[in-house]
Structure to design on (518 residues):
């Protein structure tokens, strides 16, 4: 067995421990020599910390760690610079003092090396003094690396007062990087989001945001070529485990973990955390999603009354609408995108509209499964059980059993949870059918002129139409008049149409009608 760097985010540990490494060092060298202040947004567990650790090793002149890598042939001088590396990820931020304590911890360490003449002053004054002293004492420009700059802001997202306090502190702290520019050799900040209205970067407006620039699209994550080149033995082992050919296994990995695009023309990127864990377990699972529950996203979705059907179908939007986070509950889209639950899947250059969708099956089904308990009283364990039963019932052609089970999802919703909102009930209907896509071919549509849901099993094609406070007969009539069955007439399977009426008053399925044929 070869050594997989699961949970190891330090370049030195990976290289000295002889762990597998996807070589990104040519790009590290290029970035280090063509600019100075950079910002990169990527989802969690996507290699941001390892990237900064690689920059740190390079600027410390650690030639020994780059032996055999691309950068070894590019660098000839190996100059050592003073490096200030701040990682805000390793703490919970619940009160204003938590951020102050974290900054103080790093400042004290830096002051032990470069002097503590401003110890009684504010964090930003101490930071500026350390940078100046490091430059004067070494005669070299200072390298500043800040990992997860936005962690305190994300944790205070729904606490307006605390968010404003963190914003004030970080704005002043990061602003030092502009006033101390003459002492700096290189600056790189990473995070999940780029905040706009909270103005954290308003004093640091010279940052080069490379988050959506094509030359940097592959800086974090694993391309398909890198996957096949670096992890071929692991892929072959996994293929044997699943009884698949090598190329079929790569295709299966693509569906599960690939699909992140950080530029419309950029290569699809695999999630490195999931890939490594799949190889280690010799099993395809939802590893990335299980590392953190996006409760803040659910809170935003519920407060904003966001139409979840848009997430299932895909969203067309402009770049500013998702690339910068704006502190608005009414628009959760930027947070959903920047947290990694949506990614770029298309771009219409003529009208400058991006299409955003779930990147892959891991995210799609993990996210929808996670949402169910927040929209119903059905637990996580019960969700998986019911979805499996839904699938079995339709495979057996038992529409009655399927519909009765669907009622269970609606029956347990207390009025206060949905607040009588029609969209809430529609969301549950769409989530159920989307989750069935793990096991059978499903399409869930919300656009006018298409059936609400289509499920294809080995023997049948089921077409569902869903009415709110209408009638099951009206739903059936719409299936016929709109020709929803036409695309499947030559399919060879039995066509089954299901008209469903949902009562807002009873908050459940009131009646349904089933018919076969055209």
């Amino acid at each position: 067995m070869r050594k997989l760097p699961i949970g190891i985010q330090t370049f030195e540990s990976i290289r000295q421990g002889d762990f597998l490494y996807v070589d990104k060092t040519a790009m590290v060298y290029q970035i280090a020599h063509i600019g100075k202040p950079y910002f990169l947004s990527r989802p969690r567990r996507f290699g941001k910390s390892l990237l900064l650790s690689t920059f740190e090793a390079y600027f410390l002149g650690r030639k020994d760690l780059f032996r055999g890598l691309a950068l070894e042939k590019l660098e000839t001088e190996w100059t050592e610079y003073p490096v200030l590396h701040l990682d805000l990820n390793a703490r919970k931020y619940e009160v204003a003092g938590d951020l102050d304590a974290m900054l103080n911890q790093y400042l004290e360490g830096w002051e032990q090396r470069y002097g503590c003449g401003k110890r009684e002053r504010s964090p930003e004054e101490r930071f500026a003094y350390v940078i100046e002293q490091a430059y004067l004492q070494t005669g070299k420009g200072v390298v500043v690396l800040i990992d997860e700059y936005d962690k305190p802001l994300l944790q205070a997202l729904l606490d307006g007062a605390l968010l404003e306090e963190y914003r004030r502190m970080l704005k002043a702290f990061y602003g030092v990087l502009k006033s101390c520019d003459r002492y700096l050799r290189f600056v790189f900040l990473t995070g999940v989001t780029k905040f706009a209205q909270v103005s954290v970067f308003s004093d640091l407006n010279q940052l080069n945001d490379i988050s959506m620039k094509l030359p940097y699209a592959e800086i974090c994550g694993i391309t398909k070529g890198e996957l096949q080149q670096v992890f071929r033995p692991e892929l072959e082992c996994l293929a044997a485990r699943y009884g698949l050919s090598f190329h079929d296994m790569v295709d299966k990995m693509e569906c599960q973990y690939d699909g992140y695009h950080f530029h419309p023309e950029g290569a699809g990127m695999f999630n490195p955390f999931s890939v490594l864990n799949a190889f280690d377990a010799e099993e395809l699972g939802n590893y990335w999603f299980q590392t953190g529950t996006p409760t803040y996203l659910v809170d935003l979705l519920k407060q904003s009354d966001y139409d979840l059907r848009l997430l299932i179908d895909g969203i067309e939007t402009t770049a500013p609408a998702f690339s910068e986070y704006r502190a608005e509950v009414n628009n959760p889209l930027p947070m959903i995108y920047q947290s990694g639950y949506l990614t770029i899947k298309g771009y219409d250059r003529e009208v400058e509209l991006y299409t955003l969708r779930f990147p892959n099956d891991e995210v799609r089904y993990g996210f929808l499964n996670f949402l169910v308990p927040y929209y119903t009283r059905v637990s996580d364990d019960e969700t998986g059980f019911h979805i499996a039963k839904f699938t079995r019932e339709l495979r057996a052609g038992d529409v009655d059993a399927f519909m009765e089970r669907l009622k269970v999802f609606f029956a347990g919703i207390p009025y206060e949870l949905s607040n009588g909102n029609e969209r809430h009930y529609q969301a549950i209907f769409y989530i159920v059918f989307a989750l069935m896509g793990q096991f059978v071919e499903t399409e869930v549509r919300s656009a006018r002129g298409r059936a609400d849901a289509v499920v294809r099993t080995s023997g049948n094609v089921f077409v569902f139409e869903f009415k709110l406070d209408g009638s099951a007969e009206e739903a059936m009539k719409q299936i016929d008049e709109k020709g929803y069955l036409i695309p499947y007439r030559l399919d060879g399977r039995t066509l089954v149409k299901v008209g469903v009426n949902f009562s807002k008053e009873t908050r459940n399925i009131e009646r349904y009608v089933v018919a076969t044929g055209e």
